């Protein structure tokens, strides 16, 4: 659908490349995922009924930013919601993929998996006693082992849904501004709601804060792990990185 717009050529090319890459990578895992009954049952999609624009919620990837935008486009949603009530309200309005019409334009935003992991730790646990990064990562890895998702080449359950759900748009948090401007071109109704560098709409979610994070923060946290643990962690996220075109070793090997 992207090729029918009047957007900047580079933006269109990047988006088409992402979709093509994702579809090609998904083909490698489809049979194995189906054989292991790993079809995800918990991903919810929020569809704006007037435009058909449909957002798949991924925590720690500008979800507050997009929920804030969608809340302004939905009739009957209170205008002033704190983040907790914003998320719960938007999740209540969301649907399973089987409930979506064929015309739904399904988009997702992703970020580097290791950076997302570190960001989640910093937000939830950095100031909590006895919740040190190394111990938290080891506990996370134990859960992954129990679920049978390490060292087998199978993707994590969280990122298998593109194998079953055809996505129309893949945004990256690292290019959030450019991707948001592309979506405005695709859906002009967004112009009144989406803040970008060229679209002067007030942003109350500070969505660019994560883009200002020093890469050294992720690298420094990863360096706290011993080599074997670090290697195993990167293996867990290797398929996530491949699906969405990230270098798993960007922050160290």
UniProtKB/TrEMBL annotation:
One of its GO terms (molecular function) is sulfotransferase activity. Keywords: Carbohydrate metabolism, Glycoprotein, Golgi apparatus, Membrane, Signal-anchor, Transferase, Transmembrane, Transmembrane helix. The keyword Transmembrane applies. The keyword Glycoprotein applies. It is a single-pass type II membrane protein. GO terms for biological process: carbohydrate biosynthetic process. It holds the Pfam family Sulfotransfer_2. It is found in: Golgi apparatus membrane. GO terms for cellular component: Golgi membrane. InterPro entries: Carb_sulfotrans_8-10 (IPR018011), Sulfotransferase (IPR005331). Transmembrane segments: none annotated. Its EC number is 2.8.2.-. Its main location: Golgi. Belongs to the sulfotransferase 2 family. This is Carbohydrate sulfotransferase. The lineage of its organism: Eukaryota, Metazoa, Ecdysozoa, Arthropoda, Crustacea.
């Amino acid at each position: 659908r992207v090729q029918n717009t009047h957007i900047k050529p580079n933006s269109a090319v990047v988006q088409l490349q992402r979709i093509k890459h994702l579809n090609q990578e998904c083909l490698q895992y489809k049979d194995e995922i189906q054989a292991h009954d790993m079809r995800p049952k918990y991903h919810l999609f929020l569809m704006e009924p007037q435009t058909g624009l449909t957002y798949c919620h991924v925590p720690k990837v500008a979800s507050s930013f997009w929920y804030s935008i969608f809340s302004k486009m939905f009739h009957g949603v209170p205008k002033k919601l704190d983040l907790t009530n914003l998320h719960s309200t938007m999740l209540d309005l969301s649907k399973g993929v089987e409930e979506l019409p064929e015309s739904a334009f399904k988009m997702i935003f992703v970020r580097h998996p290791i950076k997302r992991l570190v960001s989640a730790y910093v937000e939830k646990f950095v100031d909590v006693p006895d919740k040190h990064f190394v111990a938290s990562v080891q506990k996370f890895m134990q859960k992954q082992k129990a679920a049978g998702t390490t060292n087998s080449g199978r993707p994590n359950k969280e990122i298998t849904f593109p194998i079953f759900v055809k996505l129309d748009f893949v945004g990256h948090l690292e290019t959030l501004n450019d991707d948001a401007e592309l979506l405005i071109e695709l859906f002009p109704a967004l112009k009144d709601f989406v803040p970008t560098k060229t679209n002067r709409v007030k942003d109350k979610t500070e969505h660019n804060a994560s883009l200002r994070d020093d890469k050294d923060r992720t690298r420094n946290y990863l360096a706290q792990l011993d080599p074997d643990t670090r290697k195993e962690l990167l293996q867990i996220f290797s398929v996530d990185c491949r699906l969405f075109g990230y270098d798993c070793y960007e922050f160290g090997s």
